[in-house]
Amino acid sequence: MAGGKKVQGKVERDKKLWGGRFTASTAESVEAFTASIEVDARLYRHDIAGSIAHARMLARRRIISSRQARRIVQGLKSIEREIERGAYPFSSADEDIHMNIERRLIQKIGRVGERLHTARSRNDQVALDLRLYLREELRAIHEALEGLKREIARTAKRHLQVIMPGYTHLQRAQPVLFSHHLLAYAEMLERDSERMRACLERVNVLPLGSGALAGTSFPIDRSYVARQLKFPRISKNSIDAVSDRDFILEFLSAAAILFVHLSRLAEEMVLWSTEEFGFIEIPDRYCTGSSMMPQKKNPDVPELVRGKSGRVFGHLQALLAVMKGLPLAYNRDLQEDKVPLFDTVDTVKGCLTMMRDVVREVKVKKERMRAAAQDGFMNATDLADYLVRRGLSFRSAHALAGKVVRFCLDHGCRIEELSLKELRRFSPRFEKDVHAFLTPEASIRRRRAPGGTSAVNVRRRLKELGV
């Protein structure tokens, strides 16, 4: 089960904590169908933290006594220790983590435990737990994002002089620094970090005190609870607070965009590690073999990262579908928010860690990249630029360079293999310096405009990234 907590298999038939108006016990099939404890048990720390802050606030406002609050807090801390050591008797009969903890609290400290739920509903309680959980995980995800970005930057720095073909339409286009190509992913991850930080701002709002939907008649102090739980803001509308899952949707959306980026990086690793490309080698410990073909070395880690993007995209779509038709305020449909959230968090953290490790240890085959950067007439644009520098319009230079490429295709040679005499058949503007102008190194060196592939620009960006 999620969170690694074991649920008792036998369904208890005790009276429900909410069952005062009911005359019959809940059907076992309904208990099994509606229970979420196997999913939401991982929220126990957040549920207990919220309950402790709530109990202390109730005492502060003299809604319960200080002695009662102390007993409640001690009982909750004892329950947390039980869960941590795996001795907690979870029960599916109590549906979710909130009711499980409340039931256990009453068992441990008696009817004083019943006072805890004063001025609170499961609706604002679960909203609080989810925000506490996601706030914590967003910080961990941000660290993991920074870790992958840092390894990308370090790998770029180690291979600063490596030249590779740049591509458009998966066709060789112009020579670029391998470092520059890698740092494109650092930019993507930078935007991902920004989205996660922005999401955290909207997660960091206290919903507790909203009750079931209308607030509470008790004289609670929401600001005190917010300070205890380190929330900078409190919700302004009780109906919205208990029914809002925008903060989860926003996280799932940011995670989906992140996985677009991770999947693209994974795809290039898969392509680059093939015999056809041969640009990199993924270490053996991140690959597997074939059960039939002894020679195979399969890039399973990037393939799985690429594949897991589908489940992250699906989780976003699933929760959008849940939310789109819900009338205000709370509806039980919202129980379906946890699987998409929890699985996406786990998937994001796992894939960021694996990709970080692969990037750190990947072997770069610089000779193969350099050789590929000389094929495919990737200096054709430089040939046109050369002519522009000597007075030709770019359109005329472009047409002339295209004729040179056509000539080379017909004669099975490269542009730089043409002699000066042969080049002058196309234009008298070619001079002795043309061949030096056409090398991959010279092409890259000239791209010094901000954002270009020159080593000067790459070094500047690496410095900004702190490596």
What are its keywords?
467 residues, Fumarase C, Chain B, domain 1, Fumarase C, Chain A, domain 2, two-stranded antiparallel sheet, 19 helices, 58% helix, 5% strand, elongated
Walkthrough of the structure:
By secondary structure, this protein is mainly α. It folds into three domains: 2-12 and 26-118, Fumarase/aspartase (N-terminal domain) (Fumarase C, Chain B, domain 1); 123-218 and 231-371, Fumarase/aspartase (Central domain) (Fumarase C, Chain A, domain 2), CATH 1.20.200; 374-464, Orthogonal Bundle (Ribonucleotide Reductase Protein R1, domain 1). Helix content is 58%, strand content 5%. It has 19 helices and eight strands. The chain has a two-stranded parallel sheet. β3 (163-168) and β4 form a beta hairpin. α3 runs antiparallel to α4 and α10 runs antiparallel to α11. The longest helix has 37 residues, at 122-158. The chain is elongated, with a radius of gyration of 31 Å. Mean pLDDT is 93; it is low at 9-13.
Write the layout of secondary structure elements.
Elements: E1 7-8, H1 28-34, H2 37-40, H3 44-60, H4 66-84, E2 90-91, H5 97-109, H6 122-158, E3 163-168, E4 171-177, H7 178-203, E5 205-206, H8 222-228, E6 233-234, H9 238-243, H10 246-272, E7 280-281, H11 300-323, H12 338-361, E8 363-364, H13 366-372, H14 380-389, H15 394-411, H16 420-424, H17 434-437, H18 440-446, H19 455-464
Parallel strand pairs: 1-2, 5-6
Antiparallel strand pairs: 3-4, 7-8
Helix pairs in contact: 3-4, 3-6, 3-8, 4-5, 6-7, 6-12, 7-10, 10-11, 10-12, 11-12, 14-15
